[in-house]
Design a protein that fits this description.
Elements: E1 6-12, E2 25-30, H1 36-43, E3 62-67, E4 71-75, H2 86-102, E5 106-114, H3 121-132, E6 137-142, H4 149-162, E7 170-172, H5 181-192, H6 195-198
Parallel strand pairs: 2-4, 2-5, 5-6, 6-7
Antiparallel strand pairs: 1-3, 3-4
Amino acid sequence: MLITSAEFVTSAARIEQCPPPGLPEFAFAGRSNVGKSSLLNTLMNRRRLALTSATPGKTRLINFFRVNRRYLLVDLPGYGYARVAERERRSWRPMVEGYLAGRGTLKAVGLLIDIRRDPGPEEELLLRWVASRGVPAFVVATKADKVSRNAQETRRSRIAAGLELDPEEVLLFSAKTRLGRKELWHVLAGYAAPEDERA
């Protein structure tokens, strides 16, 4: 997709700080340091609009970005990093769950998994929880450039099996090579289309 504009909207520490519902929204979730910010920057054709960090667990707010004045991309706090205080992690959970459960303009949630690791209980739980709320979800295997092309397919199949999906349901993505960028935008556009157009 041609990006004509991309801008940071706001960061929310509480649900009431989220921007008013309006544009279709796509939220991205995953473990800390899975590459969410890098993925968002690649989608938006921007280098540092979504700030990346070498310190896992740095994203502690819900961050909103507006693209082409048509969509909102939402960066959710990463989970599963031990050095972030347990008390702080517990404070994120109701905020993130409140956002996912109560956002009528949320069209889909992307679950990001590092291609080099297997999905764990957190990923399985997130997919089940999102599905129970009637929100579509899709899976992205990030950092695909970190393994060989043959290994990409092997790892995709393993991730899919761990989540009881078909391999084709796991999108390969690399912020470094831009692999999967076009395909991911196609997925998002499909979720944003009216239901009668998707039928």
